[in-house]
Amino acid sequence: MKDWLKDGILMCQQDKWQHRHGLISRLFINENMERLTDLCRQEAEALLPKLSERADEEVFDIREIISPSILNLIVRVTCGVSPSDNYAKALNDLTELYRKRFLSLQSANRFNYWLSCPFMRRRQNKLIKILNQEHKDLISRHRQEQLKKVNGLEGNPSEPLPQIWHESLLRILLESQDPQLTDEEICAELNTCNYFGYMLCSAALCFALVSIARNPTVQQGSQEELQKCKIDHKKWQLEKLSYLEAVLQETLRLYPPQVILQRQLKEDFPYTHSVVGDAVLPHGAEIYVNLHEMQRIENRYPTPNNFQPDRFLNNSTELLSFGMGPRSCPAKKFTFNLLKAFLAPLVTNFELLPYGNELRLSLRLVLGSSNGFQLALKERK
User: What's the predicted TM-score (pTM) here?
Assistant: First the structure.
């Protein structure tokens, strides 16, 4: 994905990574976190009428409705504006293009891809250009506004940016005044965060909804907690939703959207193994951790294939779904707030019915289901 994500935080060199991580972490400071959480609540509230249209109908794929809302939210968080129809379509189409390339022999390396898929490559580059052009237009408009504020200069006339009450990632990157942060690198950071936020949050939310639908006691427990923590008909005390958070942790344990973690050793690593014995992994070796298998080990998680959120109540067990060590995801807390902000009104207003086919797990960039996320809804009275 180097053509798209370039030197964003996922792929930048070690000497740049810590600084980039610090910049992105500024997006989630306390005051701005509250504003971003309110943004999540707004997006979730706007989703309810669309779900009401599908209530009391036959089985449908919940991802078809969830994903556009998550995409719209993530772009508002990173860019500060709602995506245009053209931008949203390009981002979705580009994600699907890379999903088709995943594990394909034709995409085994760049040379094969250039030779065997010229039309797909041309379309890929066109979609990347659409996204980056809108990013650069936003960058230009932000800089013009900065000039007006600092120097009182008018600059070139352009469409004014919409007023927002939260800090966006784009504004944070621009106001950092980092001379080494080029426009191309800013585009790479926006692309990386948009891609990860859209794909991982969409998958996690869909897995959670299907899991709740197929476990009635979990749905009842979630609803009872939501009734206790309700502020008004649109808000809940998200920090007090401990059971719902346990539901999300159990979802991420069984269905980690990012299945594989990869790290490179900076020094020799001696280890002891019960089967192969003692050995040393050399400096520079790449380590791959299969979360899907590791988080289903029976001696660590009794009855590992059962959906049991209670195992995370009053338990400090750390999941690796957000990475590990210093390169773990800086958006972990925000992600849980986002998922709870969406689940709260959905579970409160609708009964999730376990209709449709079971999940058929498939890996295409992130963990998903080849037959969609099937369920049905019934409005609560």
Answer: 0.91
